[in-house]
Design brief:
The protein is an alpha+beta fold and 143 residues long. 28% of the residues lie in helices and 38% in strands. The N and C termini lie far apart (38 Å).
Length: 143
Amino acid sequence: MSTPFEVIVDTPSARLEPDALLQRLPVDGVGAVVSFVGLTRGTEGDAKVLRLEFDAWQEQLPKVLHDLAVQAGETHGLRAVAIAHRIGSVEPEEPIVAIHVGSAHRGAAFEACRWLIDELKQQAPLWKKEVTDHGATWKAGLG
């Protein structure tokens, strides 16, 4: 009997806790977990980053993240995906995004994790404003 595929999606407006998300990842049949955690950098060029502000199409964001996780699971034969992206204001060194991929084997987990962050940045209905000591700028594109 094969292990069912499970997806966990979160879009917190308060601090994202990657370790807590990882603890929710089912590990039945999993031989490898690969994680990606994206943080707000403290500098951009010669500017000091004060915060990033993420606006989202809040009704669609969880659906898009879920659909990406399902596609990664089907493509890479995964056992589980836990994925979360902050909305609202995120200060330097705080987590923005966390992705945990559980697979029977490490190769599929690494490939799927990389694919997920790349596709999230292309498809997730998120918009980012960078606020620095030089001013505020909306960054082009999604994610």
